[in-house]
Specification:
By secondary structure, the chain is α/β, with parallel strands linked by helices. About 50% of the residues lie in helices and about 10% in strands. It is globular and about 45 Å long.
Length: about 170
């Protein structure tokens, strides 16, 4: 098992599925992802699993059949505490509009839960989201991005290619 554990955002599964690593084109990618999820190097948040499985496609089927070594239930006390801190951060940071807090407060939005889980457990978040350039109180954002908010909690965010290199994926 790797020293670094990876908490995967839904977009880090949806994007490769829909674009450059479809199941029929890159089966080795998916089998390596499966193996690393089974052995716990890749961690799945319950909300991410739910988001993927509500689809009606090959990715949903894949997730439904995936053996997950570490499936994190967001209702753990430490995660709930960090979730509250994430929302408080959005509420108090002048770089965000009130709409940012409203969006991330919705029960179906996984982003604040990913950050809370990673902060509580020491995971690295794998996402394709990028930080917002020029984020400032002069032009507050209504769309928070995982890397910006995660940085405030000392949570690392990396892209899928970083994960693939760290876990020695070979295509």
């Amino acid at each position: 098992m790797a020293d670094e554990l990876f908490l995967i955002d839904a977009n880090a599964l949806i994007t490769p599925h829909l674009t450059y690593y479809p199941f029929d084109f890159a089966p080795s990618f998916w089998s390596q992802l499966e193996e690393n999820t089974k052995n716990g190097n890749i961690v799945i948040l319950d909300m991410v699993k739910a988001e993927i499985t509500q689809g009606n496609d090959a990715l949903s089927d894949w997730m439904n059949n995936l053996e997950i070594g570490t499936l994190v239930d967001r209702r753990q006390p430490g995660i709930i505490t960090k979730y509250s801190e994430v929302l408080t951060f959005l509420q108090n940071d002048p770089r965000y509009q009130e709409a940012a807090l409203h969006e991330w407060s919705k029960g179906s939005v996984a982003d604040p839960w990913l950050i809370a889980t990673a902060a509580d457990k020491g995971y690295t978040i794998i996402t394709f989201e990028k930080p917002v350039a020029g984020l400032s109180p002069k032009n507050p954002s209504k769309r928070p991005k995982i890397p910006d908010v995660a940085a405030a909690f000392d949570v690392q965010t990396k892209d899928l290619f970083y994960l693939m290199r760290q876990l020695n994926f070979r295509l």
